[in-house]
Amino acid sequence: MTQPRVPATIWLLLNGKSAGDDALREAVAALRDRGTPVQVRVLWEPGDAARYVDEAMAAGAATVVAAGGDGTLGEVAAVLARLQLPAADTPALGLVPLGTANDFATAAGLPQDPGEALSLVAAGPPTPLDLLRVEADGTEHWCANLASGGFGTEVTVETDEGLKKLLGGLAYLVTGIAKLGRIEPLPVRLRGPGFDWEGGMIALGLGNGRQAGGGQPLCPEAVVDDGLLDLTVIPELSGELLATLGTVVAQGQHAALERSAVCTRLARVEVESLDGELTLNLDGEPVAARRFRIECVPGRLRMHLPPDSPLLAPSGARASGSS
Is 26 an active-site residue? Predict the structure, then answer.
């Protein structure tokens, strides 16, 4: 039987790559000094997150905090989602951004300082958080931020870890420029309620969040509590490629999306590759399959976000259900 949750109890699951972060150590000590119990566990191997979430549940923890990048957030969110409990009976989710790109945290307006991020978790109630449930050739995955495919995914997957440490988010741009001469469109079909698109695509974004790959805003209007996913597909650009690149330089990526992209908002979508396997990057995890079925699950978890977070919809537009 699960113990009653103690509102002040926080379990912090720390990506092993950031285990020596002095600012985080000081932030945890400061929170403890203010009377908030904090348990720290380090994620070293596959399966660690699931084991530590089980420990947190047994201890009646109110909140589980992912300390790391988008991949750590996605890993912890997936473990919580797989508990198959109502959101109200699941520990709330927090995030201390310690990754290279921190795409979700940046779009959400989360503090980059570990102390401020932990104070946000301890300060107020969580808000409902949608998640993307992804079925890839019969295997279930969960996605908290963004599923991306095409050119942007190849850049993210192929960017060297050493380059990321040296240049941060700029590493993705450097790798992308190196690949510009060999972009090949991927033939896909996308189908959802009232939506059917087929063709060669350069990039695909399926957003709960807004950006991926070190700041690529593939779904710039997405919010995490409306019960819908934002779909953006950039078709084969052919002769417009140079003009679109010119738009990126002159006006920014958002303007380039408006010029070339097909955008819609759906409860679910099926993605089918028409030529071999397609790779989608799910919160940093590349998953290859011929067919994907992606649905937005409204209010699947609860998360501590700033009250004025850009990722929160106006109150009248928020999904009312949770699962």
Answer: no
